[in-house]
Design a protein that fits this description.
Elements lengths: L5 H4 L10 H4 L12 H9 L13 E3 L2 E3 L7 H9 L3 H9 L5 H7 L3 H4 L12 H14 L15 E5 L3 H12 L3 E5 L8 H4 L8 H13 L3 E3 L10 H7 L2 E4 L5 E2 L12 E3 H15 L13 E5 L3 H13 L3 E5 L26 H10 L4 E2 L2 E8 L5 E13 L5 E5 L5 E4 L2 E4 L3 E3 L2 H7 L3 E2 L2 E2 L13 E3 L2 H4 L4 H20 L6
Parallel strand pairs: 3-4, 3-6, 4-5, 6-20, 8-16, 9-10, 9-16, 10-11
Antiparallel strand pairs: 1-2, 7-17, 12-13, 13-14, 13-15, 18-19
Helix pairs in contact: 3-4, 4-5, 4-8, 5-8, 6-8, 9-18, 13-14, 14-15
Length: 493
Amino acid sequence: MGKATGFMEYPREKPNERNPLTRLSDWREYSTSFSDGKLRTQGARCMDCATPFCHVGMELDRVTTGCPINNLIPEWNDLVYRGRWKEALERLMKTNNFPEFTGRVCPAPCEGSCTVAINDPAVAIKSIERSIIDKGFENGWITPRIPENRTGKKIAIIGSGPAGLASADQLNQAGHSVTVYERSDRAGGLLTYGIPNMKLEKDVVARRIALLNQEGIDFVLNTEVGKDITKEELQDQYDAVILCTGAQKQRELDIEGREAKGIHLAMDYLTTSTKSLLDSNFEDGKFLNTKGKDVIVIGGGDTGADCVATALRQGCNSVVQFGKHPILPNARTSDNMWPAYPNVFSLEYAYEEAEAKFGSDPRQYSIQTKKIVADEQGNVKELHTIQMEKIKGEDGIYLFKEIPGTEKVWPAQFVFIAIGFEGTEQPLLTQFGVDTVNHKIDAVYGEYRTNVEGVFAAGDARRGQSLIVWAINEGREVAREVNSYLMGAAVLA
C-alpha cells in the first residue's frame, strides 16, 4: 500500500450528510461525497493486511460477511490514495456492474469485516466506492460498450432489479441478444420503486438503464408475463429464460383489527410515494399522504426505516417504529466477533431525522402489537401493545415472553406493516411450472437451473429477501451458467 501506516495516522471520517432538518424539505439524496483530498486520506487507511476479508463474501450465522461480489477493495483504495482514479474505476468495474447502486444502498458488510475494524473504525469503503463511480460518470470515462459480435442466441430475463440487470449486462457483453421484461412502467425493480429517492435518486437508476439500452439490451415495460405475454411465447422466441422476479410477496400481520382502514403494507406505501413523486411531484395525489397524522411502523428493519423517513417528509404529526428485538449494544459482544457483521447500535438516516424533528429516536424495542382498534367509521384509531422479554431456552433457542403490566395504547391514523417478505409471488412460477421451496424457486446456488429445461432463476426469487450485492452476485453467476448452457463453455467471469 502507498501509505503503510495510514490506518494509524488518520481517523475514519463519517460520510458527508446534509443537515437532517434541511433535507426533510426535499426528496434528494441525504448523503454527499467527500472531497478528493479526504477521499485520498480515507483510502490511505486501508492497511496492507495479509488476508483482506473485506472482499471475501461469505455467510456467518446466516449473516453476510465481506463482499459477495468480491470487489477488489484494497486495490482501488490504494489507487484512490495515489490519485489514479481512472485505474481505480477499472478495478472496481471488474467485479461490480453497478457501483453507483451499491455505493449508495448496500449496508456495506465489507466494512464489518475490514481488518482495521478489529480495533478501530473501518475504512470508509462504501463512500470511496461511490466516489469512484460518480467520478467516472462525471469525467465521461463510462461510455457504451457495444459488443463487436453477436452469437445469434436470444435470452429473456423476467424482472429488471439488480439480479436481472446484472445478468443482462453480462450476457449482452458476451454477444447474446437480451430482452428484459418488466411489469412496471419503469425499469429497475426495487431500485426504482422499493428504495426511496433520498437514498437512491432515480436519475441514477435511469442513467444506468439508458446506458444498458445503448449497449444493445431491450427493455419491454408494462408487460406482465402470464397476462401480456405467455410463457409459451417466451419459450418459442428465446433460447433461455431467466427468472429474476425478486421476493416481493410481503409478510402479512395476522392480528385482531387488521381490516381497519389506514393499515397498509410498507412496500405499497413506498412504491406509491415514489411513483407519484416521479410522475407528478405528488400533484396527482396518487399516494398515501400522512401529513398531520400519527404514524406507526411495525417492523424494525430497513424497509420500516424508509417508511419513517417518507412519513417525515410528508409532514406527519408523529412517527413510531416498533421492533420485537431488544436494543443493540454499542459495541460487539462475545458472540458477535470480527469478521462477522457487527450487530451494534447505529443511528441511521431516518432515525437521525426523526430525532432532529421530534427530539427522540422513533424506535421502540422489545414490543409486540396485541390488537388494532378502529373508530366508528372503520378507520384505525389506536394500537395496543405489550413489552416483551427475550430469553434463551434450555435448547439454546431464544423466545419472547410478555411482561405483565407493560400494556400501552398508541394513537395512530396510519399503520405500515414492514415485517419482511415471504418469498416470490407464485402465479408466474406456477405458469412456468418451476418447483419451489419455502416460497422460493428451487434452483441450486451456483447452478441456477430450475426443473424446467432452459429456465433459470437468480436473485431474491431464488434465495429469498437479501442484499443488493447478493443479487448482483447471482445475476453475474447465472449469466455464466446460461452462457455455458447456450455455448457449451463457461467463458464469462
